[in-house]
Design a protein that fits this description.
Amino acid/polyamine transporter I; two-stranded antiparallel sheet; 67% helix; globular; disordered N terminus
Amino acid sequence: MSPIRLGGKTRSKRLERVFWAFMLLQRVKPLSRLLAEAGDQKTALKKTLGPGALTAMGIGAIIGTGIFVLTGVAAAKYSGPALTVSFIIAGIVSAFAALCYSEVASRVPIAGSAYTFAYASLGEFVAWIIGWDLVLEYALGAATVSIGWSGYFTNFLSHFGINIPAAWQHNYWDTGPSGEAIHGIMNLPAFLIICLIGVLLIRGTRESALVNAIIVTVKVAIVLFFIGIGFAHVNTGNWVPYFPFGWGGTLFGAFFVFFAYIGFDAVSTAAEEAKNPQRDMPIAIIGSLAICTVLYIIVAAILTGMVKYTHLNVPQPVAYAVEHVGLPGWMSLVISIGAIAGLTTVLLVMMYGQTRVFFAMSRDGLLPAVFSKVHPTLRTPATSTAMFTVFIALIAAFTPISVVGSLTNMGTLAAFVLVSISVPILRKLYPEAKGFSVPFGPYIIPITSAILASLLLLAPFVDTTVPRILGLPLPWFGFVVWLIIGLAVYFLYGRSHSHVGINEGAATKT
């Protein structure tokens, strides 16, 4: 190995070691190798998903918490009637990211989503960080949604005289509507729905996609049902004032409702199981986001028109609006059914995405082989799915929703930034790769996407009401702690077991 020379002078051996250590972190997994592994019949996932199933997967992940839960709180506390503007802003940020996801998912049709894209462009170290951060989006996101599902489900049962004791609806740290301590035992419904979704995913992608498509049809029909019955009960006077919290509140409202758009990127985790990823991935990602954005804006406008925004700080705002204007009780019950269906499909796609990300990381040697073990008959990562099912179910049962929910946006937005950056790098490294291309060249949209996502990522620093630990807003503190844990796992295990690193070492010796 020749010494490094800068400006004609030989640097010290220490500088040389630092340089090679830095280069080690930049291990890039060639696209040709990624594609070859995806074609290995022993480890490859079954290709069963077409554009319809993939689009339904995206809609299933997006429509749920955003419409049925977050709209009321966002209108009452942050945006007022300008909630429609908040959804538009969040939708624009997501649209730029969706274009970037569409390109990389079609050109790198491998399981693992943003993690895999980064490995082929930004290198192993950045890929690890993204993969680790995606746990915050998918695993903790699923736990968050399951807690919301539990609330709607217990409310649904109460219509039929079935009441689950409060101690089995809440964990020890949950509080009631007025902040009173509940001291529950565990959130049993949340625990059970996670277990049920896990069993379904173990059974297979085709079965999961079929169930998802059926439920998506039901919940979209119910959203349209609400739009139909609510339009006639809009009072335009409720839209005045339109910006009661100013532009600052509207912008923070956009950050708050960003959770509503989480899910379209989960479609990219199914790239390896798509029948024609070059065509189907862009259709599914962009199509699902466009459909949901239009529905969000219409629902937000009708909701704030039916009920004054000051009265919408409730966990079931859509059902509440139906009751508030005096419509029959069965309509509210139908809305509740739609909410349960909506949240169920979000759970399905989030848990699906989590297992596929760890599947890809394990197949690269960065995590133990158990996470990439494929069932010989079902052709699904059954063991990994079972392990994550237990992990997510326990978090949902014993952790307050405020804790798990606050970290979800952080992991997602961080992934958006890095995926956007990877677009021009992928084009430069692999000009021969075929697939969808973002318009206006490889720089304008990706750079804009990265900037917009970064601005939303910094929003918690602007809001002074967000709790702080050691000077950091709570979401950022949790994000940093999780990142430190991930770095420890990488340097203690992943770095030395990396297949790319081992192959590079063998090539150097020969």
